[in-house]
Amino acid sequence: MLHLRQFASVALCATAFIAGNAAAQSYPDKPIRLVVPYAPGGSTDIIARHISEPLSKALGQPIVVDNKAGAGGLIGTAEVARAAPDGYTLAMGTVSTMVIFPATHPKPGYSVDSFVPITNIAAMPNVLVVNPKLPANNLRELIALLKANPDKYSYASSGKGTINHMLGESFQAGAGVKIQHVPYKGSGAAMNDVMGGQVDILFDQLPSSKPHIDSGRMKLLGVIAPKRLSTYPNVMTMEEAGLKGFDDQAWYGLVAPAKTPPAVLARLSSAMKQVLSMPEVRARIEHAGAIPVGNTSAEYAAQIKSEMEKTRKLVKERNISFED
Ligand code: GLU
């Protein structure tokens, strides 16, 4: 026979389960917070803002973009890992926060199992941009300049341990040059100092740098892609400058805390599918310099897993240390 106390706790659990289920069925009935773990103006922020309005229309509730930058994206991401798994706190997942940190950081404050990947929104090439006054007009000239002046020049990144940092370290190892690393809270913050001339070089994703390349406030010297970009046909790839196998791609997706109810995840997945099939949304993402993806949750989870393996290998092969 059930003791009264046990009975009460079983009843409570059942009530909570039913209430949770009902909440999942009526989801969403209040605004959703979308955490961008980097500063405004970076590519994570740009992609989040491209989807927040159509996603809000598809779900019938406001999406509030919240920039929680710091520690290379760890702060905002860890906060979402700890949030209630009810669909009202989501994060932009990046190759840095979903792959590089869980694969290489001793204690990132969460694990890849802390999240359910919903969909990868957009992929994009990485780029090497410089202050326009830097006396180099292509990658080969830049490498020659850096070789002749070890430790004289500096590069900015989105923070320690991010893909931008990993690119900077891989570039130094591959090209045999020494440059100082200056970490920021995201490319949005890093870019300002590169344009202002306080830092010389920036490893970035194309969408954040593109407007400033096009306006001449930054000079695009290299693309980290398997082939040249059709939008910048005169700019060489890393491979052309002698850095083999250097084509790491960046991407931004939507992730929810683990244990989010299946009904909520299904609602988010179908809304994202709808958003990413809208021609105007796709056109805006493409215009920004990215490629819309929109894979399924299972495909996105498999992608994260296989990229983690690849990253561990790359970090070893390139002998990268994220310590300064
Ligand atoms: N560069 C990105 C930004 O500042 C973050 C790094 C990443 O792509 O993971 O938004």
UniProtKB/TrEMBL annotation:
Coiled coil: none annotated. Belongs to the UPF0065 (bug) family. Keywords: Signal. It comes from the Bacteria. The lineage of its organism: Bacteria, Pseudomonadati, Pseudomonadota, Betaproteobacteria, Burkholderiales. It comes from Cupriavidus pauculus. It holds the Pfam family TctC. This is ABC transporter substrate-binding protein. Residues 1-24 form the signal peptide. CDD domains: PBP2_Bug_TTT (cd07012).
